[in-house]
Amino acid sequence: MDDLLYMVAFLLLLAACREGISIKDEERFDCFPEASATPTDCGKRGCIWVNVTGSGANPGIPRCIYKSKVNYGYEAKNNSTDMRNGGTIYLSRSNTLPENGIFTKPIKNISLTVKHHTRSALRITIKDATKKRFEVPVQKQFSKADASVKSPLYKFTHNTTNSYSFKVNRDDGASSKSIFDTSVGALVMSDQFLQISAKLDTAQCYGFGEHEHKSFVLDFNWKKLGMFSRDQPPTENGNLYGVHPFYLCLEKDGKAHGVLMLNSNAMDVTLQPTPAITFRTIGGILDFFFFLGPTPADVIDQYTGLIGRPFMPPYWSLGFQLCRYGYNSLAKVKETIARMKKYDIPQDVQYGDIDYMERQLDFTINPKTYNGLPDYVRELKKDGIRYITILDPAISANETAGTYEAYDLGQKLDIWIKDSQTGKALFGKVWPDLPNITVDESKDWDFQTKHYRAYAVFPDFTHPNISKYWGKLVTDFHKTIEYDGIWIDMNEPANFVHGSVNGCPMSNSYESPPYKPAIFGGYLKDKTVCMTAKNWDGKLQYDMHSLFGWSQTEPTYHATAKGTGKRPLVISRSTYPSSGAFTGHWLGDNTSIWPHMKSSIIGMLEFGLFGIPYIGADICGFFQDTTFELCDRWMALGAFYPFSRNHNGKNFKEQDPGYFGAKFANRSRDVLRIRYNLLPYLYTLFYDSVSTGAPIVRPLFFEFVGDKKTWNIDEQFMWGNALLISPILRQNQNTSISLYLPMSRWYDYHTGKEMQKKDRGSQVSLKVTKDHLIHLHVRGGTIMPTQDPANNTMFSRKNPMGLIVALDESRKANGSLFWDDGDTAGTITNGKFQHIMFKATHDSLHIAVSRNGYADARMYNFEHVTVLGTDLPPRKAVPYIYNNKKLIKGAKGVVDENGALKISGLKLPLTKTHVIQWRLKKVDSGSYEVKSSCIVFLLCLFLSLEL
């Protein structure tokens, strides 16, 4: 009998091996994603074990894989269901899928619903057909659908025989190709494990976050990315502060599509070289949104149209900002700002990190080390410097009753996250110190946490009374210190003990689920609260954890607006889809190393995709001591972060631009003045982002998607469509830089000189000189509004405005300006703004007012214009400058040695339409002799004459 059993086992193994041999590595789909799989475990799951041959094989290649021609998923109850116009189909679980391992508590009956949202957006939702499960409570517009959509760009098809699967195809008349095909792997729906796999049309994809990625394009070489918000400094591929299950792909012909999987439970995605993707999550439902573009900009327009457009930042928040954790005294803050003033380095914002507080207690000021801070903040405002203060969500619970409103009011309103074991507030430990203790910072972290940190409670920011609590505290705090913005940190939420001070019920499946996604920590509770902790409505942190920071941003935004009476600014560490409607983000506690400078570009590009364009990294790094060279180069790069802030950590040496002395300070000042000169252009880009979701920082392929050489570039980026930015990212790179110039007309921003035509569409090597702290190139065909720089925006906004006109091959250019008071809330909604359109030709500039709603716009003039690409030879004077055919007295033009025409002496009000023309020779009749067909010849002829 034993011999017979061995023979049967051998034959089964042989059959499995034969099947496995026929499956290519890239076509394997993992049947045992947990760690430590064995052949025995694999067999129990009804799958086959196939070893990977060859040395050096990628460890991510699965050994336990699904058999071919076996239904591991679901079968349709009604094979004839027509889903072309949307609808719902009901599916039953196949009996071939064993009920063990991570597949315990299978969901036997599911529904799959297809909804047409718009012509370009499709939603597919897979859920339990009989029992309600957790769904992400994000935006109301997610539920909107339109079954009457005409000529959609997509086509939904499904296979209702045997193992159910579906495809989403691009179907735009020009092409029909599958962008998401689920006929691979297995659709698994169980109580705490949901999985779906799909073949993709391309591996040229970007997104998923928040992670530190080595490259902007995603790695499909068996890469697994976990998503679960965590207090985690940037670490390669680790799950960081926020969660963004969204990606954008470029298809082989350059058309783009995007996909959102709306789920907030702990999850991971596996990318494999098929190319294919597998989503695994441990709760909720599978809820997919597809955006068909077809351009990358269209995809982000469609995505942010669903989740919510980005907020409009106040103008001052586009200026340079300075912060340090560990000033430790108001005297040190004053000393730092004095250095900035000494060297005339632009600064718009000074921060208060947690050391300004008394024992790190929110809504307090240290009476000893920061005595007089509110008065000093008022003094700063007279000089045009704003103040942003930090707030952490954790509130000390060890204060004497009646002495700390932040705790007393929370108790009264009962708004804390609750411990499931006691039904009372869950206690963790974060920053607040116990009262009446002396902290010995020489002790290790665990000792300090145990002996010095107070018990802390966590507000439930979804609570109906949160505005009465958080809104009141934030608003009232403005009466103590006149902050201009709020920085919310530690809101994953972070916790210095795992779960709670009383532990978590680890026998509970929510604390110890059958599948742990590829995330940091031994358990889900690692560095945060218990997963069994409950919100006011009974929702578990198991479901809500990654939404904590998201839920804090909106009440903070509205409270900040009420407190300041102005347009609010909020910066949040933890984010989720739709956070960008209320907050900006910085890329976390990075390190003062060269690789982190490069990865900051990738992070900015990704958050542009995620609908959070107000983004930047800690300039010069947060952890470790920086160096002169690193910080110098990082200041040059950081001058082009949309959110530009130098910030470093406690006990590391200072790194503000004035610290290193005159040479460093002057270089930082010069590059920041470029930023301030371009602020009207940057501000206009934010207006466009509010309208269309367009990223501010853009990958080159957003503008040149037809050029496949741009698809993998992530060491250069663009501001909008006009400015190409190429930073120096490597140590000792002091002689040359290699950069790519896409196929367009380009001009050196610093000199106005046109780049050589032969260099278009190629990699070029340019010199690194003291005048080129960062290489900037202006794209032909664009017009950028400017304003003369000053030491902050309060003064720069009083300066003359101008335009940089860069002509393309056809000697044309276009651009626009959005302008308002920069500080009042709701100017876009209320129409209280100026919008101006620019159009240029070889010899004229048209300035047309399309919106005349800003009353004080009459105070501003365009006073100078630089025109690049006129093809005029150098000339000391171009004396005839006209406005609507009338000669402008006092206006003059000069063509410099690089061919840039610089017109000055203009007084062109922003409230009026103008047609500016420049001529080398005046014609008595008032008409102009120069014909566009012979412009170059005649201009050369005129230049040979004495005027």
Quote the CATH topology of the domain at 76-307. Answer: Immunoglobulin-like
Q: How would you sum up the global shape?
A: globular
* DSSP, total strands: 49
How many helical stretches? 18
What order do the helices and strands come in, and which of them pair?
Blueprint: H1 2-21, H2 39-44, E1 48-49, E2 64-65, E3 74-76, E4 87-93, E5 109-116, E6 121-128, E7 154-159, E8 165-171, E9 176-181, E10 188-190, E11 193-199, E12 205-209, E13 223-227, E14 244-250, E15 256-261, E16 267-272, E17 276-281, E18 286-291, H3 296-307, E19 321-324, H4 330-342, E20 349-352, H5 373-382, E21 386-391, E22 395-396, H6 405-413, H7 445-452, E23 456-457, H8 466-480, E24 485-488, H9 541-544, H10 548-564, E25 570-572, E26 585-586, H11 594-609, E27 615-616, E28 618-619, H12 628-638, E29 645-648, H13 662-677, H14 679-692, E30 697-698, H15 700-703, E31 717-719, E32 723-726, E33 736-741, E34 746-748, E35 762-767, E36 775-779, E37 782-787, H16 793-796, E38 801-806, E39 813-819, H17 827-830, E40 834-840, E41 844-852, E42 861-868, E43 875-878, E44 880-883, E45 886-887, E46 892-895, E47 901-904, E48 908-909, E49 914-919, H18 935-943
Parallel strand pairs: 19-20, 19-29, 20-21, 21-24, 24-25, 26-27, 28-29, 37-39, 38-42
Antiparallel strand pairs: 1-2, 3-4, 4-5, 5-6, 6-18, 7-8, 8-9, 10-11, 11-17, 12-14, 13-16, 14-15, 15-18, 16-17, 22-23, 30-31, 31-32, 32-36, 33-35, 34-36, 37-38, 39-40, 40-41, 41-49, 42-47, 42-48, 43-46, 44-45, 44-49, 46-47
Helix pairs in contact: 6-8, 8-10, 12-13
